[in-house]
Fold this sequence. Notes:
Layout: E1 3-9, E2 12-14, E3 36-38, H1 40-58, E4 66-76, H2 80-90, E5 94-99, H3 102-106, H4 110-124, E6 128-132, H5 143-151, E7 155-164, E8 169-176, E9 179-186, E10 189-193, H6 205-211, E11 216-219, H7 252-261
Parallel strand pairs: 1-4, 1-6, 4-5, 5-11, 6-10, 7-10
Antiparallel strand pairs: 2-3, 7-8, 8-9
Helix pairs in contact: 2-6, 4-5
Subcellular location: Mitochondrion matrix
Pfam families: ETF (PF01012)
Domain Electron transfer flavoprotein alpha/beta-subunit N-terminal: 26-228
Amino acid sequence: MSSLRILVGCKRVIDYAVKIRVNAGQTAVEVAGVKHSMNPFDEIAVEEAVRLRERHTKDPASGSPKVEEIIAVSCGPAKAQETLRTALAMGADRAIHVEVDEKQAANLQPLAVAQLFRAIIEKEKPHLVILGKQAIDDDAGQTGEMLAGLLNWPQGTFANKIDITGDNAMKVVREIDGGLETLSTKLPAVVTTDLRLNEPRYASLPNIMKAKKKPLVKMTPADLSVDITPRLETIKVTEPSKRQGGKKVESVDELLDKLKNEAGVL
Length: 266
């Protein structure tokens, strides 16, 4: 394998700096008039794909394949194209937008997304798929693992470091409880990114302008023969209860008395 094609996922989510509010019907969080941006873990995925290309272009003597193309994919409403343009400005070569309406986007669940990605992968034939480990809106953290299962590909989750070590081989250092674990696997494979893998770059103005001319193809779940009907139903969404103020005590005996008689935890 002399060249490598990388596919990255780019989900449009409410910006991480926005204070989340539940809508009046308590069916979901309020999204109207709220700033959206690319899921932070997906930004890390795009950045890592670009860095892999930079590393292997500059060091052809390493024996690893040159990154030929980076394809950004997003499944979401029409405004998800803005997220894809951000990925293109960061360095992706072209984009694929699986368009669904706003209502479908709000109920697009991990298995459906994994099935959409599988259908695209079967057409595009990438050698490496990089996704964020989770999206900050639903925090499901399931799409990458489900996709690997559907494709029967090896996976490296919670990646802290990614190295293409040869013509068909990769090493992934992944974060686990209490430390790091190093995996060695063959390509093709699925990788999900953790927070400490890299720090995404800011897209420069010239690259933002160039991104407007890069190819962006639109399709629908029907084009991919994928049923995105939700398998789970959200019954109710509520805000967490407000924390109550603490109390100071004068002694350990008083603390134990309050824990026993007031809090009822002893």
